[in-house]
Design goal:
The complex is a heterodimer of chains A (323) and B (115).
Chain A lengths: L9 E4 L8 H10 L4 E6 L2 E6 L3 H5 L6 E6 L14 H13 L8 E3 L9 H11 L7 E3 L12 H7 L9 E5 L2 E5 L16 H11 L8 E5 L17 H6 L7 E5 L6 E5 L2 E5 L23 H4 L4 E8 L4 E8 L2
Parallel strand pairs in A: 1-3, 4-5, 5-6, 8-9, 9-10, 10-12
Antiparallel strand pairs in A: 2-3, 2-14, 4-13, 7-8, 11-12, 13-14
Chain B lengths: L1 H30 L3 E7 L2 E3 L2 E4 L4 E6 L8 E2 L14 E4 L5 E6 L7 E6 L1
Parallel strand pairs in B: 1-4, 3-8
Antiparallel strand pairs in B: 1-2, 4-6, 5-7, 7-8
The chains are: A alpha/beta (323), B alpha/beta (115).
Chain lengths: 323, 115
């Protein structure tokens, strides 16, 4: 591994072990469209070639890989994507083709488009063909329509608290699935609510500050674009409870595009949808589905892989499109 | 005296005529007007504010590719989820100012004024 600090881009290029500077970075970016994965890891950019599975298999003990999928909007059938079944299947194919099978999947909400039983059934059926069998869900606003989230809780959050929030641990990482799509107030953004915030505070109280934390929720927990409702009113309070931790990764959906922000100990990341893209903040009159030429659609949909490297004590987030 | 009576008669006549024409307008207003349309398009209610009389039927139509709802802040009216082209109607029975929003996209807000 060779690192160069002069341009603040550090690379670990395990493909050929050679030096990579800014030119190498650009090369890595170019590969992104042709079968390599570029990995952002604690400020260190890594590249892995998809044609060389061994590069991804060199994982140490205690390391963890999982994938995030989001916004499958099963039941949507408008021109932006008349076949959301096919694109969700393509996402599953993408996951099944990963060199190392992820241990589980996170679905960050808007599983269905209209909370209809058959829409949930369709997603469940398609996800059965994914190699990782365990899926952890959080609801999107489209999953809790007209019934206050009752059906969602019965299907996906039987053992969860409140409207469906819960936590679990894997390989020393503490995962927290949050619900910020319930009881939305006129003029407001996403909301976690007092009960959930109290639970959060209590849930992390006994953890050591070196425990890596992964928080996942549907609506971004940072103000991506409040004008379009892309933020959560009480997220600052939630993040305040996580201040003591050295590594916090926040994974969200809802905005149907990837975005990343690093703020102190917290890395925020939003995933693409498996159904349809949405415009960049403010780039259209509204955040409705963005229509693109059919041949471009899959380049704007995707899945997100997350790798935990114990050695570096950080999580690497990798986005790949469905192309 | 006679003149005053005449003038009074005239005033009464004019008043009667006025009253009659107002009634006519009111009748005309009651015959058809008692309905108004609000469109949901591009994550916006249009018009933003509508002013109607008690008894006017208000109908919202969702023209977006994304579902929306119509929910008044004080729970006077609440629609089910409206998918594309679906409608919801509400006929107010009490005067007042009703602020409402889309409970799925709460940034979408608007007002109905009932007189």
């Amino acid at each position: 591994m060779t690192e160069k600090n002069d341009n603040k881009i550090e690379l670990d290029h395990n493909h050929d072990g050679g030096d990579i500077d800014r030119r190498g970075f650009l090369k890595c970016m170019a590969w992104a469209g042709t079968g390599a994965l570029c990995v952002m890891q604690g400020g260190v950019l890594k590249s892995y070639s998809l044609s060389d599975p061994s590069s991804m298999k060199q994982r140490g003990k205690g390391e963890l890989s999982f994938v995030q999928i989001s916004d499958s909007h099963m039941g949507f059938n408008k021109p932006a994507n008349p076949d959301v079944i096919a694109t969700l299947k393509a996402a599953v194919d993408k996951i099944n083709a990963l060199p190392v099978t992820p241990e589980f999947m996170l679905h960050t909400g808007d599983i269905s488009h209209l909370s209809k039983p058959e829409q949930f059934d369709n997603v469940d059926q398609i996800l059965k063909s994914a190699k990782p069998q365990n899926v952890f869900f959080v609801p999107g606003e489209h999953d809790v329509l007209d019934d206050d989230g009752k059906q969602y809780r019965e299907r996906y959050a039987r053992n969860a608290k409140g409207a469906g929030w819960y936590s679990f641990d894997r390989k020393g990482i503490h995962f927290m699935g949050l619900v910020n799509v319930m009881n939305l107030k006129a003029g407001g953004l996403g909301t976690l609510g007092l009960e959930q915030l109290e639970w959060m505070k209590d849930d992390v109280k006994h953890l050591s500050k070196s425990t890596p934390i992964v928080v996942f929720a549907h609506i971004p927990l940072w103000a991506v674009y409040p004008e379009w409702g892309w933020g959560t009113d009480d997220s600052a309070q939630a993040l305040a409870y996580l201040k003591k931790f050295g590594s916090v990764t926040v994974l969200n959906g809802h905005i149907h595009q990837t975005m990343q922000k690093i703020e102190g100990n917290v890395t925020f990341h939003t995933a693409t949808s498996t159904a349809f893209p949405q415009p960049k903040p403010g780039a259209a009159p509204s955040p409705g589905p963005m229509k693109v030429p059919a041949e471009q659609l899959r380049s704007l949909l995707g899945v997100t892989e997350v790798n935990y490297m114990r050695k570096h004590h950080s999580l690497a987030v990798i986005d790949s499109t469905l192309e | 005296m006679k003149n005053i009576v005449r003038i009074n008669k005239l005033v009464a006549c004019i008043l009667l005529a006025l009253a009659f024409s107002t009634t006519q307008i009111a009748l005309a207003a009651d015959a058809n007007p008692s309905s108004t349309e609000i469109k949901i398009d591009n994550f916006t209610f249009a018009p933003q504010t509508v002013t109607v009389k008690v008894g006017t039927k208000i109908t919202w139509t969702n023209s977006d590719d994304i579902p929306h709802t119509v929910v008044s802040n004080d729970s006077s009216f609440k629609s089910k989820t409206l998918d594309t082209d679906e409608k919801f109607s509400f006929t107010p029975t009490k005067p007042g100012t009703y602020s409402y929003f889309c409970s799925i996209h709460p940034k979408m807000t608007a007002t109905v004024v009932v007189r």
